Amino acid sequence: MTASVSTLPCVKKDLVAHLEADLEGVLAEWAPLDDKRNGIKQRKRRAASRIVWTSVLGVGCFLGTSVHLTWWVLSWDIMEPLTYHVGLTVALMGGVYAAVVPKKELSYTSLASQWAQRRERIDTANAIEGGWDPERLVILDEIKGELETRLKKASAELATLEIQEQTEGKEGKA
């Protein structure tokens, strides 16, 4: 019985080494796929932010230009019908867009969400055409998680066995 107990740490060391090698192999395949996924997510976030800031700056520029033309370049008599027609045109185009295109409430949050989803669809399609495989990434995520769990458990068991072996060695010497 003592021979099998003393070989148990060696078996556990071999198991840990095998799991570490398997995990390294999975990580080598998983890393480029995960980098591509993270790049797609980052472009998605930037697209959402970009559409919101573009629309806010557009409205700000329109108002700033109107104020400048009204008080410094032209007069209110000239600018009143101009701003009325430009504002009415923009409001009508926005109303038509809100009524026809999206199926949800039009707000900056939903607009950002729509553009983010659009960017994600485009980038994902381009990545798949370029050879990126999201299904393989999901499988590798699961395998990686399982290997990390098994490795953590095996390492803990090995550490426990080594501590037990050390305490038994000290008791045998005493």
Note down, in words, how this protein is organized:
With 174 residues, this protein is mostly helical. It is built from four helices and no strands. The chain has helices at 2-73, 76-100, 108-129, 134-173.
| Overall residue-averaged pLDDT value | 85
Secondary-structure element series:
HHHH
Q: Note the quaternary state here.
A: single chain
Give the N-to-C terminal Cα separation.
22 Å
How many extended strands?
0
Helix content percent band: over 70%
- How many helices? 4
Largest sheet: none
Structural class by helix and strand composition: mainly alpha
Global geometry = elongated
> How big is the Rg?
32 Å
- Runs in which pLDDT lies below 50 for 5 or more consecutive residues are none
- Strand proportion, as a percent range, falls in under 5%
What attributes characterize this protein structure?
4 helices; mainly alpha; 174 residues; 91% helix
Topology (SSEs and partners):
Blueprint: H1 2-73, H2 76-100, H3 108-129, H4 134-173
Short description:
This protein has 174 residues and is mostly helical.
